[in-house]
Amino acid sequence: MKNINLKGITKKYKSVVAVKNLNLEVKEGELFCLLGPSGCGKTTTLRMIAGFIPPTNGEIYIGDKNVTNLLPNKRDIGMVFQDYALFPHLSVANNIAFGLRMRKFDKEKIAEKVDRYLKIVGLESLKNQLPRFLSGGEQQRVALMRAVIIEPSILLCDEPLSNLDAKLRKQMRLEIKRIQQKFGITTIFVTHDQEEALTIADRIGVMKDGDIEQSGVPEEIYNFPTSRFVADFIGISNFFKGDIITESKVCFLMVSDKIKIKLGRAEENIYKNEKAEIVIRPERINITKNLEQPGSSPQERKDNVFHGKIGRVTRLGSVIECMVEVEGCQDVIVHYHETNKNLSLKENDSVFLMWKPEDCRLIHK
Amino acid sequence: MNNSVEENYKRQQSRMAYRLLSPSILHYALFFITPLIILFLYSFYHHVPGGIVETTMSFENYKLFFGDAFYREILLRTFVLGLVVTIATLLIGYPIAYFMSISSERTKSICYVLVLAPLYTSVVVRTYGWMIILGRTGVLNDILMRLGLIDDPIQLMYTFSGVVITLVEVFLPFMILSIHSILENINKSLVFAAQNLGASKSISFLLITFPLSIPGIASGCILVFVLSMASFISPVFIGGPGFRVIPTLIYEKAMASLNWVLGAAIAFSFLLIMIIIVFFYNKITSNERWSTVK
């Protein structure tokens, strides 16, 4: 178990900069998710750590050791590939044993260890099969075991779940987390699926244009996005743009003449910018047909109450999404749970929206 | 008549396919299968010196071919020629194909042009070229003597080696393309995975890339082997009149000795041997372990 330290790594391809002066520390035993859209440089970063491509600039440390110029086969890193990269001509057992063979373990020890690891993922019976006769989920497990059996100090996962169907993906991500915790391997997990990252990561780093835009624990990333990009990429967001005004130490965002959003107390110089943008998550917004309904406190009924008309209702499983047309600003997306029996909203219903001032997050560019 | 919709659909599809295929089937039947049947019948007829054919059926032509040590030696030489040419093209072609597979797109396309270029020229023209190169006062001997590597010109024209050199050049593109197409399709992350698990570059080549390229080697080898055994132009031009392989023997029997029936018997014996070789070769190399590359 070792930590990983990336010090200002940069990767340039002729005119394209894939990774830009990236600094990152992943702590021992941590599962760190690199999350970002395709082309943001997350896979390139992973490949540089693995040693498949050299960085143009910067240094990579594993533990105290500078591995920047080390060959990939000398780095003691396990890797799970997006397409699993199982050796098609070798049986499941020989695939898993490959790393141990390279490390010149003796035959009996390899056989014993392979059996033990196959048992962990319940694939003992498929031991002598060729990979192509296995299902996607089984191949995934073999790939994972092949990477962890060498007991590497670092595990790298390159979008390992993107080739699986939705249900299996959910199951496998918990399995990966379980195995990662069982062995306590420091892991970097690359994904473009925000839900995946939020579920399994100890910490998330959101990448954009070759650099980490924001990193933190999942709650922090979800609830306190620091940029529009992060707020937009993770979850669904309502953005409001406007001018900041302060009235008796309380800040407001003037979106238009009709829409004035209360932001809470003006602390120090947080709201000193004239122009600003805030984000509100759809589930933080209360929706009701009637303001006198129970469930909304008198205080709530005073701040940030806006009238609107429902434009569209969509069911997302147990959550229902409403697009509400509000005069004076853009459409607002609201989520509510279907167990909220008092509400049975349909198009063109007249509704009130309200939210707490502290649920508004001011974002910097 | 209770055909399902699916069966009906399939029947219509196959009827359509036959209709589309009919011109080529007709062409093949008329100009390939029919002459072949006539030739097959001829191989059982009786030869009377002077180019006359008697239509009495017997196995005498086959007996003559397989029973005569002279013919058996020619058959063996043809076989050895095929084998040597195949091994040589493999040894030269594999590194080229491998180099192409790890090159950048630009280098790769240049290599493609270079590999394919000879195929745009007639084999006859290229063989004349080789005559100029391989002759006693040819380019090759000239260079070797100037370099001081040899004192006297080496005899390459009218020798087995000369024919091999020419055939290797002629069939090299087939070997390179067969192997390259397989190497190109090997998932690049397999090599990464092997290195990640601790294999050096050479070990990962030996344990991963090479075994996975065996289907390419197999198809390249059988192609070159069959083509070089059946080659006619190079043995005639480079090997000369004294160099006999089965194709030149058939020509000699049919056109020079006017012994059509023996020529036909040799041709069919040769065809049968080739079919048997290809059949068993496919049996051996179609082992499922090597059958997919992904």
The CATH first-level class of the largest domain in chain A comes to Alpha Beta
- In CATH, the homologous superfamily of chain B goes by the name MetI-like
Rg from alpha-carbon coordinates of chain A: 25 Å
- What's the number of structural domains of chain B? 1
Strand content of chain A: 25-35%
Taken from the alpha-carbon principal axes, the silhouette of chain B is globular
- The pLDDT mean of chain A sits at 89
CATH fold category name of the largest domain in chain A: Rossmann fold
**How many whole angstroms does the radius of gyration of chain B measure?**
24 Å
Q: First CA to last CA of chain A: what distance?
A: 37 Å
Helix content of chain A: 10-25%
Q: Given this structure, which CATH class of chain B is correct?
A: Mainly Alpha
Pair with the most extensive interface?
A-B, 27 and 23 residues
Strand order of the largest sheet of chain A: 6-7-8-3-9-10
Oligomer: heterodimer
Plain-language structure description:
The complex is a heterodimer of chains A (365) and B (294). Chain A has two domains: 229 residues, Rossmann fold (3-Layer(aba) Sandwich); 126 residues, OB fold (Dihydrolipoamide Acetyltransferase, E2P). Chain A has nine helices and 20 strands. Chain A has a six-stranded mixed β-sheet, sandwiched between helices. In chain A, strands 13-12-11-14-20 form a five-stranded antiparallel β-sheet, with no helix packed on it. In chain A, strands 15-19-16-17-18 form a five-stranded antiparallel β-sheet. In chain A, β7, α5 and β8 form a beta-alpha-beta unit. The longest helix of chain A is centred in the middle third of the chain and has 18 residues. Chain A is of the alpha+beta class and 365 residues long. Chain B has a single domain, classed as MetI-like fold (Orthogonal Bundle). Helices cover 76% and strands 2% of the residues of chain B. In chain B, a hairpin with a 3-residue loop joins β1 and β2. The longest helix of chain B is centred in the N-terminal third of the chain and has 38 residues. Chain B is globular, with a radius of gyration of 24 Å. The chains are: A alpha+beta (365), B mainly alpha (294). At the A-B interface, β6 and α2 of A face α8, α9 and α13 of B.
